[in-house]
Structures are given as structure tokens and as C-alpha cells.
């Protein structure tokens, strides 16, 4: 902001902070008194039932006689277990993300012909409309690619001849445009950031229609367009695993909240991108990497159990790193014993660590995964806590030489499929504007004439 370092502005802001703190408090005890379901969570930690979905299923526990029994995590897309999809792609040595997009969007697995036609269509639509790259990305670059992506998605509205219609035909058309063009936008936003903020040379590569999503993305972000088949297959695996996570995760729910008002596709998806950016959601993958650097800087031997345990304890006490008290990459709203995506990514992370000489760092991640639940239980009481998808994803990207500023955007590219499927479902079957209640605790106040105010 112009003049934001001026002393008078700083002191006004500090004063306004204390005015807010004095005048807007909510008594913490009220939450219990009024039985508020904070974070839309029931008292046992399960989520408040807010809707029905056919898109994805996330399983982390069994309810038995009103008790939550921890269970191994399972994730399915339209009823198909994601682990089966991953294993099939691995066995047949092929890419799977486009197949997953088709499954999520249309509700069925494609035949070979349907898949080939879908891939050809998505590939052909990758280039951005004339002038979009220059006007919407290069002229207004951002140091944060999620921010640039949200703005780019909103800008798609101005390039659309029929942006507001919520009929199925129109939303599918817009969804396909998003699948095709969001990776292109992210690649250009990254190149603009690298050039304008980091002083690197500017590389603008045209998207390649015949490549898979994963290959095309690596092609577009690398100066020399080069990538190995292993790199592209690992990226494809990560994209499959990040494609969808039920209706209640914060970004899918955000998509549904905005969609329930009758608003347009670009508004709903830009809002979801803003949600995913947060460090308690998709932004955790980048935070994990920063947290790992903090471990390396403060722990003499990163594979020494006691030293790592001490540092975890310090971070849980809000003593160090970002003082949030969180161990990023750990904990989940549904999973208790395991996150099935982490199981897959961890296997890949170990393989990559071996070939890239990063085994010592991989062991640090494993120690954090193993020790955090015990230390958390000692400090705060027993809680089922496992590593979530964000613990190993950044490490996998690091081994693929993908820079940290692209970790959360990679998540957004992958999750586009889930968000679009949830938007379609909300518009077709949701039926009502999403509008929960807030109990007002502000009490009554008199309007005091300005001359009589203290
Ligand atoms: C793709 C994804 O979004 S996966 C999640 C990525 N996010 C992270 O990795 C950030 C770290 N993890 C977390 O913040 C949480 O575990 C979440 C947001 C993922 C789930 O949150 P919730 O469901 O609210 O947590 P839950 O109810 O299980 O936790 C209750 C308590 O445990 C604490 N807790 C949960 N996870 C952690 C953690 N990783 N580190 C420290 N404390 C934690 C909560 O802060 C809360 O404490 P409080 O009662 O003192 O306020
Ligand atoms: O389900 C959640 O709350 C968060 C999550 O793991 C995801 O969206 O992938």
C-alpha cells in the first residue's frame, strides 16, 4: 500500500487493533453454552452432515454404538478405490490422471475411445485465448502463484461469451476449459514470477496437445522442455491422488457454498483456490518444506530420534518455526490410522530419495510421522493422528526438481476435477442456498449521539 511504512499509519493500525480487541470479544465459554459446532464438527470430531455426494468417498473410522473406531483410510472416486486406479496405471505403465478426470466429471470409467477423444479435446484447448497471457499474467505477475491463479480463473469470465448460465451444458464446457487451461496458466504464472520477482530468464513454451497433463506441465515449466518418463509418471501419480476428497473438505465445500447461490463457475473455482491456499489445507505442502528446513537448522543430527522428538515437542509448544503449534503434514479431519494417499506417496518418496541421494531427509520425514502422535498424546491427550497427503508430497516434488512455489498450485491443478464435479452436483441436486446459523451474542446497545461519545 502506498505510504504503508509511514509512522502515522502504523500507529493508527496498532490503535485500531486494540480498539477491536476491547470491543468485539466473544466469550470462549459461549461456544459450549450455545452448543456451537465449531468448524462444523460434532463433539466427537466427526463432521456435521451437510449434504450428499456421489463424487468421492473418504473413509477413516467406523461408528459403533456411537463410538468412533479408528480404521485404515480409504478413498474412492465415484465408488472406485483410488489405490486400484493407481495400481492399474502402474501395472500398465500408463498415465491415469485424464481417466480420473473423466470418471469424476461424468460418473463412469471411460472406454478407450471415450478416453482418447477426451484427451484430444483437453489437449487441443490448452492454449490461452489471444492476449490472455500478456494482459492477465505477464502484465500483473504475482510473487504467489495461487494468488495469480485465482485472479486468472476469475479473468476467464471476461473471455467467455456465456459466463453466467448454470445449465449443465455450459458448466461442463467451462469445466473442460478449466482442466485444459489452468495448467497453462500456472506454468506462465510461474515463468512470470521467476522472471519478474527472482530475476531469472523468461521462458514461454507453448502447450503440447499430444502430451499427458503431467508431461505437458513438466514440458512447460522446464527451460529446456526436458523430463524423464519416471518424473512424468510420478507427477501423474500425485495428480491422481490429489484429484478429489469428498464434499466436506474446505475447498470443495467452498465451491459448493458459492455454487449454491447461483453464482458463475469462475467465481466458485476462484474461491476454492483461495481456500486451498491456506496452510491448514493444501498450503500445508509448502509449509512442510519450510518446517523441514527449520528442523535441519535446529537439530544437529536430523536422524537422531531424541533430537527430532525434542524439536517436535518445542514446535507443539509454539516455541519456534511459525509459532502456530502445528506439525504440518500431520493430522486429518477424517483419517485416523492412515491416509491412503500418503501410503502411496511415501512409497514413491522412498524410491526417489534412494535415487536422488535424499535418504537422510526422507528418514527425517518418517521420524516426524512416527513420533508426532506419541508426543502430541503426551502433551494434549490421546488423539488418532496420522500423516496426511501433504507430508510427503512436497518431498516428492522436490526430488522431481519442482520448485516449492509450485507445490500448492500442483494441488490446485489436480483438484480442479473434484471441484468441477462438486459444482455440477451442487447445481443439479443441492437445491437450496447453503446458509447455516450464527447465534448473536452482541447484546443490545443504544445509539449515542456523536457529541456525547467518549
Ligand atoms: C489436503 C489437506 O488439507 S490435508 C491437511 C493439511 N493440513 C496440515 O497438515 C496442517 C496440520 N494439521 C492440522 O492443522 C489439522 O490436523 C487439520 C486442519 C488437518 C485437521 O484439523 P481438525 O480436524 O480441526 O483437527 P482435530 O479436531 O483433529 O484436532 C483437534 C486438536 O488437535 C490439534 N491438532 C490437530 N492436528 C495437529 C497438528 N498437526 N499439529 C498440532 N496440533 C494439531 C488441533 O490444533 C486441535 O487443538 P485444540 O483442540 O487445542 O484447538
Ligand atoms: O479432507 C480434508 O479435509 C482435506 C484433504 O485431505 C483434502 O482435501 O485432500
Automatic annotation (TrEMBL):
GO terms for biological process: carbohydrate metabolic process; tricarboxylic acid cycle. It comes from the Bacteria. One of its GO terms (cellular component) is cytosol. Pfam families: Citrate_synt. Gene3D superfamilies: Citrate Synthase, domain 1 (1.10.580.10), Cytochrome P450-Terp, domain 2 (1.10.230.10). The active site is at residues 332, 390. Keywords: Transferase. Pathway: Carbohydrate metabolism; tricarboxylic acid cycle. The keyword Metal-binding does not apply. GO terms for molecular function: citrate synthase activity. The keyword Transferase applies. It catalyses: oxaloacetate + acetyl-CoA + H2O = citrate + CoA + H(+). PANTHER family: CITRATE SYNTHASE, CITRATE SYNTHASE, PEROXISOMAL. Belongs to the citrate synthase family. This is Citrate synthase. It comes from Congzhengia minquanensis.
Amino acid at each position: 500500500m502506498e505510504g504503508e511504512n509511514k509512522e502515522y499509519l502504523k500507529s493508527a493500525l496498532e490503535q485500531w487493533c486494540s480498539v477491536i480487541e476491547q470491543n468485539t470479544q466473544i466469550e470462549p465459554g459461549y461456544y459450549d453454552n450455545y452448543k456451537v459446532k465449531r468448524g462444523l464438527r460434532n463433539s466427537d470430531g466427526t463432521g456435521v452432515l451437510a449434504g450428499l455426494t456421489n463424487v468421492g468417498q473418504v473413509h477413516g473410522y467406523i461408528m459403533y454404538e456411537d463410538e468412533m473406531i479408528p480404521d485404515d483410510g480409504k478413498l474412492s472416486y465415484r465408488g472406485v478405490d483410488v489405490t486400484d486406479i493407481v495400481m492399474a496405471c502402474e501395472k500398465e505403465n500408463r498415465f491415469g490422471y485424464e481417466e480420473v478426470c473423466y470418471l469424476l466429471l461424468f460418473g463412469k470409467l471411460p472406454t478407450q475411445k471415450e478416453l482418447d477423444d477426451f484427451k484430444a479435446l483437453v489437449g487441443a484447448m490448452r492454449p490461452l485465448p489471444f492476449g490472455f497471457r500478456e494482459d492477465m499474467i505477464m502484465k500483473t505477475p504475482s510473487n504467489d502463484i495461487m494468488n495469480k491463479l485465482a485472479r486468472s480463473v476469475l479473468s476467464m469470465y471476461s473471455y467467455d461469451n456465456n459466463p453466467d448460465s448454470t445449465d449443465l451444458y455450459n458448466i461442463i464446457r467451462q469445466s473442460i476449459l478449466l482442466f485444459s487451461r489452468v495448467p497453462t496458466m500456472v506454468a506462465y504464472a510461474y515463468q512470470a514470477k521467476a522472471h519478474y520477482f527472482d530475476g531469472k530468464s523468461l521462458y514461454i513454451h507453448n502447450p503440447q496437445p499430444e502430451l499427458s497433463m503431467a508431461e505437458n506441465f513438466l514440458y512447460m515449466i522446464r527451460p529446456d522442455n526436458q523430463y524423464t518418463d519416471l518424473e512424468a509418471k510420478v507427477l501423474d501419480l500425485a495428480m491422481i491422488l490429489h484429484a478429489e476428497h469428498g464434499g466436506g473438505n474446505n475447498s470443495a465445500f467452498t465451491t459448493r457454498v458459492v455454487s449454491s447461490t447461483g453464482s458463475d463457475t469462475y467465481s466458485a473455482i476462484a474461491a476454492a483456490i483461495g481456500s486451498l491456499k491456506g496452510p491448514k489445507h493444501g498450503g500445508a505442502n509448502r509449509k512442510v518444506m519450510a518446517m523441514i528446513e527449520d528442523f535441519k537448522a535446529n537439530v544437529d543430527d536430523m536422524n537422531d530420534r531424541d533430537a527430532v522428538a525434542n524439536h517436535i515437542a518445542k514446535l507443539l509448544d509454539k516455541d519456534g518455526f511459525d509459532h502456530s503449534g502445528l506439525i504440518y503434514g500431520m493430522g486429518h479431519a477424517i483419517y485416523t490410522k492412515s491416509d491412503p494417499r500418503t501410503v502411496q506417496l511415501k512409497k514413491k518418496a522412498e524410491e526417489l530419495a534412494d535415487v536422488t541421494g535424499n535418504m537422510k531427509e526422507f528418514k527425517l520425514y518418517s521420524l516426524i510421522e512416527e513420533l508426532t502422535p506419541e508426543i502430541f498424546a503426551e502433551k494434549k491427550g490421546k488423539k488418532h493422528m496420522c500423516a496426511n497427503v501433504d507430508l510427503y508430497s512436497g518431498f516428492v516434488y522436490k526430488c522431481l526438481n519442482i520448485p516449492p512455489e509450485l507445490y500448492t498450485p500442483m494441488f490446485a491443478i489436480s483438484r480442479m476435477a473434484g471441484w468441477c464435479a462438486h459444482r455440477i452436483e451442487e447445481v443439479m441436486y443441492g437445491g437450496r442456498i447453503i446458509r447455516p446459523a450464527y447465534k448473536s451474542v452482541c447484546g443490545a446497545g443504544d445509539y449515542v449521539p456523536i457529541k456525547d461519545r467518549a
